[in-house]
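Contributing: when you submit paired examples, paste them exactly as shown. First protein:
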Amino acid sequence: MDKKVSYKKVNTKIRNRVNSLLKYDENALDIFNAISKGKNTYVRLNRREDSSFDVTWINLIEDTIPALDTILSNPKSVIKVEGNIVPIELSKKISSESVMHLASHSQYVKTINPDGSVVPEKILNQTAEDNIKIYENRLVATLIKRLSLFLQKRYDYIVKYSPLLDYETLYVKNETDLNESHLVIETKIKFSRHAMDRNDIDTHNYIQRIADMMRYVKAFSRSNFMKSFVKERDVRLPIIQTNILRKNPYYKKCYKLFVFIEKYNRIGINFLINEEYKDIDSEDKHDIDRMVFDNFLALKGTDSKKVIKKSGYTYAPKILRNSDDELFDFYDFRSDPEFIRVDDAFRNDTLKSIPKELKAKPKEADIKARPKDYKEKDKKIYEQKKIDDLLKRKKKEELELRKTIQAQVAAEKKKAAEEAALRKKEQEKIEEDRLRKMREKIVKDASKSK
């Protein structure tokens, strides 16, 4: 809605209209008084959202990006020498290593001239090339992969959840006895709006910095450097401390960032929620009672003419038996049954009451020396076994009851889905009938025009 509405003006008009009705209509006044004097519950909640940002990881990544750019432009490498035995005609360069290899492998000598010169048939040919697939560069390649996912997760979350909202919630429940009937009305109104001028500028700059870093990392991911490490294994913690990682400033920054993002598990934004429950004054209470009054009048005192679906059920409640039904003792025939507790606390108390100094396997002499104590111990052990058995039965019955409840919930959900599908089908039928009538009218009008 582009046009702003004055809530106060509309509220004043509705209040005047209801007050006029209550002034001149006794039935309306009786209903309103019954609602006002009923059992009313009012809850008004104001919720205010605020946020704060952790820029530690952003500063660290921004400081490391120039180092990554430098490494990708001129990565460290080692000279890799490869030697192959090739025919003498294909040899491009003969080095001292080639001569030494030929001296120790006479099978590659073709002929020896009278002047003593040697004509080889095959010879060792060596080629040297720069190899960038060293451990330090593998760490840099792994860092770029992890950075891409690291930034994307936080960017998506912050873009989705950083906009702040303020909520005002009003919950009203009224229970009233009216005309020999029990009336229950529950209403919940939730009003939300964007938070005004708290962190909008900071949030925008925060998101923009993350987006800029993502563009850099995406460019790094498409570089020739990364193409060289497509089939290479990623580096994992712990990192081997090589000389390059310790002394080269660019690789050192990459190492520090790698260790940081591997251990950093926060999103980077914290939300502060302030909730205030406010009291309802007499004027607000009158307005709320008026709203409940309007809701009641919406029933119009008549049944709805259109029946969407008709169903009936017969419920036969049952009382489930469990182990608690057997857990009671009688002191005498006049007393009420006293239920025995069957829980961990009672079990622990029972165990504590058994003297620890009594032997687990007493001899006959021990029993004769302390017959009363051992008799009491046997009694406690028997009671403990009984309690343990009952506990097992109780847990089993609770599990079966939970399964039964879950099955009932699933059945109710299925029933609700079927009802929703039926309502949708009815609505589609109504729409089809309406469209058919419109088409017939259009054809009829067109025929008249001709």
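Second protein:
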Amino acid sequence: MYKLIVLTDTETAFGFRLGGVEVVEAKDPGDASKKLNFLLNEDSSGIVAVSEEFIIALDDRTREKINRIDRPIVISIPLKKELEEVGERREYLARLIRRAIGFDIKLGG
């Protein structure tokens, strides 16, 4: 049976654990990359949800591996902590929508 595993920072990990999810903590993007590569080769990994900040920092080799393999499925968890300006929030939401559905949607205001 495959598992859902969340790869995130220590600060966010507690919330996922409260939800009953298996969590792997990483100190920084470099540590996250090492742990993600291990999870990509783990037989029990079904879905690996990775904090957005760690996904952004991945090297090209790891990104290519994620795109090449069928399992586990790697998804990004948007955990943007500080969105101060309205324009920045709209841009962030638009980027998430574009990534999810594959094209731009104009967000009215």
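If you have annotations for the second protein, write them as plain sentences, like these:
The beta strands are 3-8, 22-25, 45-51, 73-77.
The first helix runs from residue 10 to 18.
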